[in-house]
Specification:
The complex is a heterodimer of chains A (147) and B (577).
Chain A: H1 2-24, E1 29-33, H2 37-49, E2 53-57, H3 60-70, E3 74-77, H4 86-95, E4 104-108, H5 113-121, E5 126-129, H6 135-146
Parallel strand pairs in A: 1-2, 1-3, 3-4, 4-5
Chain B: E1 8-12, E2 17-20, E3 31-35, E4 41-45, E5 50-53, H1 56-74, E6 84-86, E7 93-96, E8 99-107, E9 112-119, E10 123-132, E11 137-143, E12 149-158, E13 163-169, E14 180-186, H2 187-235, E15 239-244, E16 249-252, H3 254-260, H4 264-267, H5 272-275, H6 282-289, E17 296-303, E18 306-316, H7 319-324, E19 331-340, H8 342-377, H9 386-416, E20 425-427, H10 429-439, H11 441-446, E21 450-454, E22 463-465, H12 467-483, E23 490-497, E24 501-508, H13 529-534, H14 542-552, E25 556-562, E26 566-574
Parallel strand pairs in B: 21-23
Antiparallel strand pairs in B: 1-2, 3-4, 4-5, 5-7, 6-8, 7-8, 8-9, 9-12, 10-11, 10-14, 12-13, 13-14, 15-16, 15-19, 17-18, 18-19, 20-22, 23-24, 24-26, 25-26
Classes of the chains: A alpha/beta (147), B alpha+beta (577).
């Protein structure tokens, strides 16, 4: 039963990914790097509903790997992550000329001026405090950057 | 026996007449006899000094009186030439104090008597005496005198002092050359005098001892003060360096030696310039060179986790001595206090980290609730009934309140860390105010508020502010006006400027602040009693934060309010900063 569900889910995702490819052609991919599973799922759901492709990473290492492997069009990046932090990822991306063009929106619950400055200096395009934005507002920020 | 039997009364000096009872008169030019009382006769010279001839009736009896009168009478023709009267009777006594002299001869012309010290039961003769009657001081050699025969002249009788002063000579060589002065004084009197003198000596000794003692005490006190000061300096938890007027290090306490990891021998009595060459103390000494007249405070990180708070205090001479030395700047040295704040800094860092973490940990689940609710409310997951929507909307608002509370707590934490202003940049306040009003547009429409913004007449000069913080202050003020004014109320916002300040005013016709609570409005967690009843929202931190932000910018914030009439808040920000 569980496997069946997994299969269906996978098929659905493939449908979304490839189906949309056929339907809309070049679908923009957004990578969500967020350790909180529920938050990750909520925002992924919203992003998919808005017609983007969504990729997910649950920690820093996975996030960086996926940035390198999947070359997303935009990254929503949490800062406080197990292991490699969001700042580490920003730094790695900034230092890698192959990746440095990928826009990153920092998406965190830290919000002190020091953190914001540090993130912007490391190349973040925007800094959103999660609790201050609704999913719709986050989508609007994404849209304005991907325009 | 009565005096009348004495037969004579007085010799009148001016008239030179001695009146006696027998109407005899005798010329006695310099001495006269005065009847003192019934039983005493006194021989007096012209200065008034005299000798008592005592107890006429008893001691010398009628015989003496008569014979004296007879002698005087007999010798009256010769009295001018022959001045010595040989008394035919040896029973004339003179009382000096309580002693007795037997008068052997009276030389009236010279006022001389030859006397024998007849009885001096408790008396001594003071030879070569100097008796200072005024001061009551008696000096001389004491000698047993009973039985001596001396010639004496009446000098003075001091009844008060109970003694008689006589001049004494062993014989009369035709003249009255004074050889000695003799004082008769009683033993008792002598004892008194000696006691008095001893007491005086004792007193002066005591006075001297007191002076000595006081000097010793003063010295001890000074010593004690010095020790006290030294003990304070030595045991001070802070490091202390004292420099003299030429910046020479004159004192370093053990704590300072420890903090700088340096021995006093290495640095003491060296000038600042010399000390700058010593690596361990150099970063501290450099601060001294910046020379200021006022106290200065500075943090200095000697190592990464070893931070000193250094206060430099110029030691000024007292104003009086300063005025005397014209041209001198009055500085007599500098004091440098080293306070180790490594621990405080560490705690600050930990606290800051904690606040960050707490904010993160609290915000994450709140974000999840917010997003999920929003998505449900936006019907992204299917239709929501009216009843469900109402419930979920209220849940969403509660969650928003929680998020705001966390923001406020973070702001308070920053204020308390002293980080109120972080990012200063020039900004146009008009623009900031507009933007803040716009961010409340939804709420204004919802509450059907009549909000008017009176823009400044002229373009405002740009002022230097931390825009994010000023926005927080503005948001708190606007939000309060909206929250605490009933629907369809009026809010007016003014922005004006004079040469020094920009002034922001927000006026509402809302519930106001009760008079008795107006004092507490800017304190932490303050909420008006009337407001708590109508509006459960609000953290009670808004005005505390706003005040701190405005004041950190060098501005002022104040208000006027009347319950049920409305409230007006003002704040100013300085232009040239």
């Amino acid at each position: 039963m569980k496997n069946e569900f997994k299969l269906i889910k996978s098929a659905y995702q493939h449908y979304i990914r490839f189906g949309s490819l056929f339907i809309r052609g070049n679908m923009k991919k957004i990578l969500i790097v967020e350790d909180d599973k529920f938050l990750r799922e909520l925002i992924a759901k919203k992003i998919l509903a808005e017609g983007y492709d969504a990729a997910e990473a649950k920690d820093g290492e996975e996030g960086l790997k996926k940035i390198e492997a999947e070359k997303p069009d935009l990254v929503l990046l949490d800062l406080v992550l197990p292991g490699m932090t969001g700042f580490d990822i920003l730094k790695s991306v900034q230092e890698n000329p192959l990746l440095s063009d990928i826009p990153i929106i920092v998406f965190s619950n830290l919000g002190q001026r020091d953190d914001v400055d540090k993130a912007i200096n490391l190349g973040a395009k925007d800094f959103l405090i999660k609790a201050h934005f609704t999913p719709q507002e986050i989508i609007e920020r994404i849209k304005s950057i991907l325009k | 026996m009565s005096l009348k039997q004495v037969k004579y009364i007085q010799i009148d000096d001016r008239r030179g007449t001695l009146y006696s009872a027998g109407k005899q008169s005798l010329l006695v030019p310099t001495t006269f006899i005065r009847v003192l009382s019934k039983t005493f006769i006194r021989l007096v010279d012209k200065e008034g000094a005299g000798i008592l001839i005592s107890k006429i009736g008893e001691s010398i009896g009628r015989g003496y009186a008569q014979s004296l009168a007879a002698i005087l009478k007999k010798e009256k023709a010769e009295i001018n030439k022959k001045t010595r009267i040989q008394l035919g009777c040896n029973a004339i006594f003179m009382e000096a104090g309580w002693g007795r002299l037997k008068i052997l001869e009276i030389d009236l012309s010279q006022s001389m008597l030859k006397v024998e010290i007849y009885r001096a039961p408790s008396m001594e003769f003071l030879k070569e005496s100097r008796y200072n009657l005024e001061r009551g001081i008696l000096t001389g050699v004491y000698e047993e005198i009973t039985g001596q025969q001396v010639y004496t002249k009446l000098l003075k009788e001091n009844r008060k002092e109970r003694c008689v002063v006589l001049s004494v000579c062993k014989e009369i060589p035709g003249g009255i050359e004074k050889k000695e002065e003799m004082v008769f004084v009683t033993r008792q009197r002598l004892e008194e005098l000696v006691k008095k003198r001893t007491k005086e000596l004792e007193d002066s000794r005591k006075a001297l001892m007191n002076v000595l003692e006081e000097v010793t005490k003063a010295r001890e006190k000074a010593e004690e003060e010095k020790n006290k000061t030294l003990a304070v300096i030595t045991n001070l938890v802070d490091g202390l360096l004292v420099f003299d007027s030429r910046d020479k290090l004159v004192l370093i306490n053990p704590q300072a030696e420890m903090l700088l990891n340096i021995g006093s021998g290495e640095v003491l009595n060296k000038t600042a310039t010399e000390l700058e060459n010593i690596a361990k103390i150099q970063p501290v000494i450099i601060l001294l060179a910046k020379g200021a007249e006022k106290n200065r405070r500075q943090e200095l990180a000697l190592q990464e986790d070893f931070i000193l708070d250094i206060t430099i205090v110029p030691l000024m001479k007292p104003a009086a001595s300063y005025r005397r030395q014209k041209g001198a700047n009055g500085k007599s040295g500098s004091l440098m206090i080293l306070h180790n704040i490594s621990r405080e800094k560490l705690i600050e860092k930990i606290k800051s980290g904690f606040v960050s973490l707490a904010a993160h940990q609290l915000r994450t689940p709140l974000s999840a609730i917010k997003w999920a609710l929003r998505m449900v409310l936006d019907e992204e997951t299917g239709n929501v009934s009216r009843e469900q929507r109402e419930l979920l909307e209220r849940t969403y608002q509660s969650n928003e309140r929680m998020i705001r509370l966390i923001n406020d707590l973070l702001n308070v934490a920053q204020i308390e860390e002293g980080k109120t202003i972080i990012n200063l940049a020039p900004a146009n306040l008009d623009e900031v105010v507009q933007a803040m009003i716009n961010s409340f547009r939804e709420k204004i429409v919802l509450k059907e508020m009549n909000l008017k913004y009176h823009q400044p007449a002229k373009k405002l000069p740009a002022i230097t502010i931390d825009r994010e913080k000023i926005e927080i202050a503005l948001a708190n003020l606007i939000d309060n006006a909206l929250n605490y004014t009933p629907n369809k109320g009026t809010i007016e916002i003014f922005l004006t400027a004079d040469k020094q300040n920009v002034e922001f005013t927000i006026q509402d016709n809302g519930v106001g602040i009760p008079k008795n609570q107006q004092k507490g409005i800017f304190s932490k967690f303050f909420r008006g009693e009337n407001v708590v009843k109508i509006e459960t929202e609000g953290t009670g931190l808004g005005m505390f934060i706003a005040k701190n932000i405005i004041e950190a910018h060098g501005g002022k914030i104040w208000f006027e309010s009347q319950e049920n009439k409305g409230t007006t808040f003002h704040f100013t920000l300085p232009i040239n900063k």
